[in-house]
């Protein structure tokens, strides 16, 4: 056995020891759940066709299906992973009534199904429930077909004709999975590589799109890219090639799985991305990303670290554990922004965490690339038609602000003191957005006196920017959280000695922490607000 084969086997053993590969009975359990869901939606669609009083032959032919996607759809799930599955129905079954009412009631009456929730205000509306103890996320896509077969080809452009926007968003997730699975030359090698890279990203603190890092879809495409470039390579060579390729990648040149994808026209916002990654299915858009210059640099550092470690792969004393060594976040900074979240009941905590996490990009991430405070104030004055001196000296002029980053604030300033207050408030927001290094890890504080269930995030603060008015930041952040699940939040600037215990929730303990609410997606481009300087970025729904 050559050295690379030996390294591949030792890596597979390492993955197994870490619990990354589910037991056969776990796979069988998920397969049974998916098959049961398929049977339920088949019964559901025939009931809908009957209620619509369609012809008998149409009722008999009526069909809908369930298509897994995400980590389970790609075959890289763990024993703690949930199931992401898309319900695809024909034109006779609406989302608002038939999916969220009829199918929802059928699921509630199904043995083994518990905690059915309809999340209608999500970026992609879905139902969330537990089936035999496994969490399931179930969005819906309505095709303009009279019947949807179980082997429907969603990569056929015909399937996209006449569908609504929510269906298109839902379908894109499955279509990306199907494209990747069709393109990779060796499925088993791709799955093993992706498991490794996801584990590495989580251990090193660079996993999580909401925090400005690499999401699951980014890592899947990057892993598929390496597999396509090295079709005959074993796992150890693929891992080494991954870090070699992306530690030296000439960003912002996009990553695309096929050369023809590069010929499509890029829009302005795509060109602004630090790490553009092309989706592998038509219309070949870019993956949505919250990556900023700050988080981009963190990712690059980890790519370089991985490259340096795997360059020694042939050394006799090489150990895979060094690549996956957890990042000790406490040693990186002296000061931290501590975000303390709690809820009155344990069952409510997951939804509250997910809601807060879905708001992180709107306040923290999107402003990290802007100019400094002085330039910001000058830009503020220029954007409003006033010079810097005018803003400071003649603040009694009637000014109105309606910022997409601060949707709950609408300022009408009549007095110089109020104008100065706004400028100061603006500077504080700009400062915190430029100061934070978001840490995706969720912590618990051992020995905390708090009686309520809670979780803590600790984000590193750059030494030169550890001082700002935390009360103003917390006030604004609270206003960003209106309209969703409720809970308690407290922000504080703390020293490293007050960093919480490294004990954190195991993956999947709180399934509700998965943010599925109205956050940025492929169609929510970051666009400059009309009412504030160009470097303040908000989301515009288009």
Account of the protein in words:
This protein has 542 residues and is of the alpha+beta class. Helix content is 41%, strand content 13%. A five-stranded mixed β-sheet has the order 1-2-5-4-3, with helices on both faces. A four-stranded antiparallel β-sheet has the order 9-10-6-11. One of its GO terms (biological process) is RNA 3'-end processing. It is an enzyme of class 2 (transferase). Keywords: ATP-binding, Magnesium, Membrane, Metal-binding, mRNA processing, Nucleotide-binding, Nucleus, Transferase, Transmembrane, Transmembrane helix. Its main location: nucleus.
Which properties best describe this structure?
single chain, 542 residues, alpha+beta, 5-stranded mixed β-sheet, 13 strands, 41% helix, globular, disordered C terminus
Helix content: 40-55%
How many separate helices?
Answer: 16
The H-and-E topology, N to C, reads as HHHEHEHEEEHHHHHHEHHHEEHEEHEEE
Protein structure class: alpha+beta
Overall, the morphology is globular
Question: How far apart are the termini?
Answer: 56 Å
Largest sheet: 5 strands, mixed
Estimate what percentage of residues fall within beta strands: 5-15%
Summed up, what is this model?
It is built from 16 helices and 13 strands.
């Amino acid at each position: 056995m050559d050295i690379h084969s030996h390294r591949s086997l030792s890596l597979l053993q390492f993955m197994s020891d870490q619990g990354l590969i589910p037991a056969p009975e776990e796979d069988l359990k998920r397969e049974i759940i998916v098959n049961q869901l398929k049977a339920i939606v088949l019964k559901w669609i025939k009931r809908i066709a009957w209620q619509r009083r369609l012809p008998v032959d149409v009722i008999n032919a009526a069909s809908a299906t369930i298509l897994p996607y995400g980590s389970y759809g790609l075959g890289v799930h763990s024993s703690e992973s949930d199931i992401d599955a898309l319900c695809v129905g024909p034109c006779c079954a609406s989302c608002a009534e038939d999916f969220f009412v009829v199918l929802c009631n059928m699921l509630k009456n199904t043995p083994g199904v518990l905690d059915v929730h309809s999340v209608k205000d999500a970026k992609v509306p879905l139902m969330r429930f537990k089936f035999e103890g496994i969490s399931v996320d179930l969005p819906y896509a309505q095709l303009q077909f009279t019947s949807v077969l179980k082997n429907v080809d969603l990569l056929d452009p015909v399937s996209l004709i006449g569908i609504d926007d929510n269906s298109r968003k839902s379908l894109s997730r499955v279509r990306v999975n199907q494209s990747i699975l069709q393109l990779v030359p060796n499925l088993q090698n791709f799955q093993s590589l992706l498991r490794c890279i996801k584990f590495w990203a989580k251990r090193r603190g660079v996993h999580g799109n909401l925090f400005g890092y690499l999401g699951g879809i980014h890592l899947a495409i990057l892993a598929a890219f390496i597999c396509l470039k090295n079709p005959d390579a074993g796992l150890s060579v693929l891992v080494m090639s991954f870090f070699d390729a992306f530690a030296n990648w000439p960003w912002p040149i996009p990553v695309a799985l096929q050369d023809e994808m590069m010929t499509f026209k890029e829009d302005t916002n795509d060109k602004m991305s630090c790490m553009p990654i092309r989706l592998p299915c038509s219309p070949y858009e870019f993956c949505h990303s919250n990556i900023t210059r700050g988080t981009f640099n963190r990712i690059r550092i980890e790519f370089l670290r991985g490259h340096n470690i795997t360059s020694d792969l042939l050394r006799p004393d090489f150990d895979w554990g060094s690549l996956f060594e957890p990042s000790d976040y406490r040693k990186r900074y002296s000061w931290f922004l501590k975000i303390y979240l709690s809820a009155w009941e344990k069952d409510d905590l997951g939804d509250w965490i997910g809601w807060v996490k879905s708001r992180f990009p709107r306040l923290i991430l999107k402003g990290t690339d802007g100019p400094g405070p002085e330039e910001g104030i000058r830009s503020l004055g220029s954007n409003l038609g006033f010079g810097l001196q005018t803003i400071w000296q003649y603040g009694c002029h009637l000014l109105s602000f309606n910022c997409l980053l601060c949707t709950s604030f609408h300022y009408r300033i009549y007095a110089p003191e109020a104008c100065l207050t706004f400028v100061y408030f603006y500077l504080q927001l700009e400062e915190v957005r430029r100061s934070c290094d978001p840490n995706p890890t969720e912590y618990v504080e051992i020995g905390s006196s708090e009686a309520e269930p809670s979780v803590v995030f600790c984000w590193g603060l750059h030494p030169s920017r550890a001082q700002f008015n935390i009360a103003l930041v917390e006030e604004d952040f609270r206003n960003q959280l209106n309209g969703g699940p409720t809970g308690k939040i407290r922000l504080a600037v703390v020293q490293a000695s007050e960093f919480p215990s490294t004990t954190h929730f195991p993956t999947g303990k709180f399934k509700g922490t998965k943010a599925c609410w109205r956050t940025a997606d492929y169609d929510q481009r970051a666009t400059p607000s009309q009412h504030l300087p160009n470097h303040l970025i908000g989301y515009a729904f288009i």
